[in-house]
């Protein structure tokens, strides 16, 4: 596919020129535009890469319920649904009776539908988010309302105020962790040390490292820092891949 902008569609401000130049050079932007899979976001390649490099935690026969927090526009949900829907390399017999598991995608923005994905438009930080998502899990996946994998690519809008931005990032990490405590399946219940997986985006800051040490490390068999090649090197984002949830 050729990748040429229509000049009249773009502003010529220096910031726009810089953005455009970066987009044209970016191999993942090109890959997204040329891929027949029509991924909705460049982020899809981050999840694909993390999954490939880390034991294909998403592509396990016993992964039936995936929650994608901060899912819009939907690249990660597409990747998860491809597996759950059985369009990936999976034996039919390993899927649930109706041939599917469930992906629940949550975002405060509206998302266009994706086959096999239940979308919830809501603010994840609202007090009733956990119970609403839990009810949907019980209804669509299992009585216990447990998820095998919880993904969070959520990021608050930056304000330019460092203190506020760090606090917002902390609030999201804390809320995701509290949610995982209630809804993530334990490794023990699956009989697999690496089961019960949380993938959580965070931004470099000492307070977030403290959060990792106090909240995540004691409750998972392994917590890895992951910076996929597809995550821009100038971005301070990284992911914690927490495998083997030990339970409360
Ligand atoms: C980087 S994008 C996610 C991209 C997504 N993984 C994909 O592949 O398409 C981050 C998303 O988090 C969402 N978000 C941030 N804070 C949120 C909140 N409190 N509740 C729900 N969604 C939130 C934003 O609306 C945004 O769509």
Automatic annotation (TrEMBL):
Keywords in alphabetical order: Methyltransferase, Transferase
Protein name: 23S ribosomal RNA methyltransferase
């Amino acid at each position: 596919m050729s990748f040429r902008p229509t000049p009249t569609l773009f502003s010529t401000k220096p910031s726009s020129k810089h953005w455009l130049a970066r987009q044209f050079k970016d191999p993942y932007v090109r890959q997204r535009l040329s891929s027949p899979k029509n991924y909705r976001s460049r982020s899809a390649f981050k999840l694909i890469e993390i999954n490939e490099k880390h034991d294909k935690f998403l592509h396990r026969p016993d992964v039936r319920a995936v929650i994608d927090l901060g899912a819009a526009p939907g690249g990660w949900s597409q990747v998860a649904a491809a597996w759950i829907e059985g369009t990936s390399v999976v034996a039919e017999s390993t899927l649930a009776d109706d041939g599917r598991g469930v992906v629940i995608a949550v975002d405060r923005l509206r998302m266009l539908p994706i086959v096999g994905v239940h979308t919830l438009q809501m603010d994840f930080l609202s007090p009733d988010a956990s119970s609403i998502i839990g009810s949907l899990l019980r209804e669509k996946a299992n009585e216990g309302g447990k998820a095998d994998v919880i993904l969070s690519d959520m990021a608050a809008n930056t304000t330019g105020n460092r203190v506020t931005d760090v606090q917002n990032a902390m609030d999201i990490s804390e809320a995701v962790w509290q949610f995982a405590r209630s809804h993530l399946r334990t490794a023990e219940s699956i009989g697999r040390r690496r089961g019960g997986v949380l993938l959580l985006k965070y931004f470099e800051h000492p307070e977030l490292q403290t959060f990792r040490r106090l909240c995540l490390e004691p409750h998972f068999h392994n917590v890895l820092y992951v910076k996929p090649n597809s995550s821009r090197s100038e971005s301070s984002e990284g992911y914690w891949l927490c495998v083997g949830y030990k339970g409360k």
